[in-house]
Amino acid sequence: MALTPSNMLPLGTKAPNFELINTVDNSLVSLENARGVEGTIIMFICNHCPFVKHVNDELSKLAKDYSSKGINTIAISSNDVVNYPDDAPHLMKENAITNDFIFPYLYDETQEVARAYDAACTPDFYVFDKHLNLVYRGQLDDSRPGNGKPVTGKNIRETLDNLLKNNPISEVQKPSIGCNIKWK
To answer: Which CATH number does the domain housing residue 9 bear?
Structure first.
């Protein structure tokens, strides 16, 4: 497990469009049809990474807490499933059901979407405003497996609350840390 930080895509970047299969129901999901009215969280996650497993409960809560406020969540796995079979689409579906994800869990088989977002690790988080401009990229919070800090989603929750209130969002943002995306 290599500790990899986010690449920190420049703030203001327009969200790259995509169209991927939702492993939960085999529907085709695009950014345009899954985005939120007020904002969109896009996260690169996977099944096997201990950093993602550590925050799965909070990811589920976060999506539920903000979906009624016009913020939609989209999860994408871009890992090479040949060398990392635990991240295969049928197991992504099981993971989504087990963790009660209310958001689509998309499979980026070609890894083109991860490259378009300059994603580097799992988990890697991006928050876009209602115009799909990047306002936050980085960590969920300060918790990591084994560091004893509670998983709260503090950094993303503060960003979303400020976004919804039209308050300024701090440009001082910490990168996420996790397992590297498993490139082919």
So the answer is: 3.40.30.10
